[in-house]
Amino acid sequence: MNKKTMHPFAHGILSIWTLMVLFPLWTMIVNSFKYKYDIYRDPFGLPKAWNFQSYLSVLHDSDFVLFFKNSLFVTIGSILAVLIFGSLAAYALANWKTRASRWIYAFFIAGMMLPIKIGSIRLLQMIKALGLINTIYSLFPVYIAMGLPIAVFVLTEFIREIPFELTEAAVIDGAGRFRIFRSIIIHLLRPALATVAIFNLVPFWNDLWFPLIFINNDKHKTLLLGVTRLFGQYQTDWSKILAVLTLAAVPVVLLYLSMSKQFIKGLTAGAVKG
C-alpha cells in the first residue's frame, strides 16, 4: 500500500473513530435538553421541544455549584501537587545515575501497572488514621499517589532529552541545581507538564470510587458523587442527570482545548530524531 492510498485509508479510520467518540457526547448533550419522556421516545434525535428547565433546576435548586467547587478544588490542587512533586522527582532521577536511582524509577513505573483501587481498604484505614475521613482533603493523598507514576515517567524521559551542554553552561556560570531547575528546566518542561496535567485531569475529575468511600458529608461531596443523589428508588430524572454530566464535561473540554498544542508536543517529544 503506497502513500497515496494510505492517506485516504488513515483518514477514513480516524473519521470513524471520531464519530464513535462524539456519538455518546452528542447523545448526552441532546438528551439533556429534552423532557424526561421524550428521551425514551427518541433518544438520538434533536428535541422537538427544548427543555432548559433541567439546567435551571440544577443550577438554582440543587447543590451543583457546591459540588462543582469541591471537584474543581480537589482536581486543581491534586494536579498542581503532582506537577510539582513529579517534576522535582523526575529532575533528580534524570541526573542521579546510580543503581538506587534505577530502582526508585522502577518503583514509580510499577505504580502505573498496579491499580490503586486494590488497596482501598488499607487506604481507608490510613485516611481515617490521618483524621481526614469525611472531608474533601481525604482525596488529595490518594490522587497525588495516582498521578505521580505517570508524571515521573513522562517528565524523567523528557528531562533526559534536554541537551547536557545547556545545564553544563549554567553550572559554569555558577548556577546551582535548584536555580537550573527553576530558570531552565521548568520552562522547557511545559509541553510535558501539559501532557501530565491532561492525563491526570480525567481520572481525578471523573473519579467516583474514592469520594464514595471516604465522604458522606454533603458539604464535601464531589460533583459525580452528588449526581448519585438524582437517582431515585422508583424513578430517575434523566434530563437533570444528563444536564449535570454535560456541565461536568465543560472543564475537561476547555482545558484540553487551551492546552492541546502543548499536549501534542509533549506526546511527540523525542519521537522524531533530527
From TrEMBL:
SUPFAM superfamilies named in the record: MetI-like
Location in the cell: Cell membrane
Protein name per its UniProtKB record: ABC-type transporter, integral membrane subunit
Similarity comment: family membership: Belongs to the binding-protein-dependent transport system permease family.
Biological-process GO terms, alphabetical: transmembrane transport
Short name of one Pfam family: BPD_transp_1
CDD domains according to UniProt: TM_PBP2
Ranges where the ABC transmembrane type-1 domain occurs: 68-259
Membrane topology term: Multi-pass membrane protein
NAD among keywords: no
Lineage: Bacteria, Pseudomonadati, Spirochaetota, Spirochaetia, Spirochaetales
Primary location class: membrane
Keywords: Cell membrane, Membrane, Transmembrane, Transmembrane helix, Transport
Organism of provenance: Gracilinema caldarium (strain ATCC 51460 / DSM 7334 / H1)
Cross-referenced InterPro entries: MetI-like, MetI-like_sf
Transmembrane regions: 12-33, 72-94, 103-124, 136-159, 180-202, 238-257
PROSITE patterns: ABC_TM1
GO cellular component annotations of the record: plasma membrane
